[in-house]
Amino acid sequence: MSTPTDEITILGATGWTAAICAEHVAKGFPTNTKWCIAGRSAAKLEALRQDLRAINPDRLEPDTYVSPQLDGEGLDPLVKNTKVLINGIGPYHRHGTPVVEACARDGTHYLDFSTETAWIAQMIRDFH
């Protein structure tokens, strides 16, 4: 297993809550934090990256990762390259399971914003 190069990856970074999370990283984390913003649209990710640069021009810019699909092929390189994945793509009962599965398989720490308690319980049963 290779060593992850990003400390944090925010998946679905251009969504409302995940973008707020990205702004928090840009404002408050050490400027040398290696991180990544990920999603389906290269154009939206680049626009977010520009906004984040304006917030704190002294920090390392995030890498960007475009994945049009949430499947093993699209997720594995992303998950293997980060220590912590923050998932902002909901609804989680529809889109979250492959992300949790990939993180569990690769030993990547996982965090999301879900309030879908039945789905959360199922993920704990399946992957904890």
TrEMBL record:
Gene3D superfamilies: NAD(P)-binding Rossmann-like Domain
Domain (Saccharopine dehydrogenase NADP binding): residue spans on this chain: 8-126
Source organism, top-level taxon: Eukaryota
Origin species: Fusarium oxysporum NRRL 32931
InterPro entries: NAD(P)-bd_dom_sf, Saccharopine_DH-like_oxidrdct, Sacchrp_dh_NADP-bd
Source organism phylogeny: Eukaryota, Fungi, Dikarya, Ascomycota, Pezizomycotina
Protein name from the UniProt record: Saccharopine dehydrogenase
Annotated signal peptide: none
GO biological process, one term: glycolipid biosynthetic process
Family as reported in the entry's similarity comment: Belongs to the saccharopine dehydrogenase family.
Entries under PANTHER family matching the protein: SACCHAROPINE DEHYDROGENASE-LIKE OXIDOREDUCTASE
Annotated coiled-coil segments of the chain: none
GO cellular component: lipid droplet; mitochondrion; plasma membrane
